[in-house]
């Protein structure tokens, strides 16, 4: 499904985006690794799709890299988007262990990612960070790779992983008036190394075509 133009909505949601877009829509030399569910191939133009379909992954990918041909306008469609699935349809689409996440981060680094987007959150404090995941995040920091992670949507003031891990850019969600969503987690570590972004009824590509809307820190993270 082609032609659903969300350009005006994005420029209203993100202050200064219209000016940024007048200069650039991204560059193929900038590689953004999206650690999420695999997107549907036909829903998003420009993303490297893997096998399987997960609605969450399709939506998140399209916010970053969607083109008009794919049914929704993404924020940086001319950047190179790399899909590294951490969820799958087989496991229900919502399970991601720290070991799987660490492996995905290492894969993103091996692929030359400049930015890593993680729209996933586990209810656990920084003290429960595994050595495997800690090492992967430290490797990203050593290569000057920005890792952006969702705070999660459990509606608590407690930290989650990986957003609360050292060196992360944690992202919570706000509504159309700029107020934090009640569902968006915002723990103490996240408050010291994070921000909130547009996360209510965020437009994105639907599995099967068209534009869907969803709320939460996952979609705010993709916007960041």
Class computed from helices, strands and strand pairing: alpha/beta
- Return the CATH topology: Rossmann fold
CATH class category label: Alpha Beta
Question: Which geometry do the CA atoms define?
Answer: globular
Give the tally of β-strands.
8
**Overall number of domains:** 1
Number of DSSP helices?
A: 7
User: What string, H for helix and E for strand, traces the elements in order?
Assistant: HHEHEHEHEEHEEEH
Helix content: 25-40%
**Stretches where pLDDT falls below 50 for ≥5 residues?**
none
CATH superfamily: Peptidase S8/S53 domain
Widest sheet: strand ordering: 2-1-3-4-5-6
List the helices and strands and how they pair.
Elements: H1 7-13, H2 17-23, E1 31-36, H3 55-65, E2 80-85, H4 98-110, E3 115-118, H5 131-142, E4 146-150, E5 169-174, H6 188-192, E6 194-198, E7 202-205, E8 211-214, H7 217-223
Parallel strand pairs: 1-2, 1-3, 3-4, 4-5, 5-6
Antiparallel strand pairs: 7-8
Describe the structure.
With 224 residues, the protein is α/β, with parallel strands linked by helices. The chain has helices at 7-13, 17-23, 55-65, 98-110, 131-142, 188-192, 217-223; strands spanning 31-36, 80-85, 115-118, 146-150, 169-174, 194-198, 202-205, 211-214. The mean pLDDT is 88. The protein contains seven helices and eight strands, in the order ααβαβαβαββαβββα. The protein starts with 6 loop residues before the first helix and ends with a helix. Strand 1 (31-36), helix 3 and strand 2 (80-85) form a beta-alpha-beta unit. It has one domain: Rossmann fold (3-Layer(aba) Sandwich), CATH 3.40.50.
């Amino acid at each position: 499904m082609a032609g659903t133009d969300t350009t005006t909505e994005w420029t209203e949601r993100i202050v200064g985006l219209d000016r940024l877009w007048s200069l650039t829509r991204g560059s193929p030399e900038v590689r953004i690794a999206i650690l999420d569910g695999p997107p549907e191939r036909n829903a998003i133009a420009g993303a490297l799709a893997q096998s399987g379909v997960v609605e969450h992954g399709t939506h998140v990918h399209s916010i970053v890299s969607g083109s008009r041909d794919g049914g929704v306008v993404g924020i940086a469609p001319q950047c190179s988007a790399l899909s590294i699935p951490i969820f799958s349809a087989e496991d229900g689409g919502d399970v991601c262990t720290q070991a799987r996440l660490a492996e995905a981060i290492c894969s993103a680094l091996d692929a030359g990612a400049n930015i890593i987007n993680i729209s996933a959150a586990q209810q656990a404090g920084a003290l429960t960070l595994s050595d495997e995941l800690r090492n992967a995040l430290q490797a990203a920091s050593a290569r000057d790779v920005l890792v952006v992670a969702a705070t999660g949507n459990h509606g608590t003031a407690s930290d989650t992983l990986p957003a609360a891990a050292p060196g992360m850019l944690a992202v919570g969600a706000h509504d159309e008036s700029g107020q934090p969503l009640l569902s968006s987690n915002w723990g103490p570590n996240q408050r010291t190394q994070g921000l909130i972004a547009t996360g209510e009824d965020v437009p994105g590509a639907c599995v099967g075509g068209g534009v869907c809307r969803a709320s939460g820190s996952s979609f705010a993270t993709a916007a960041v």
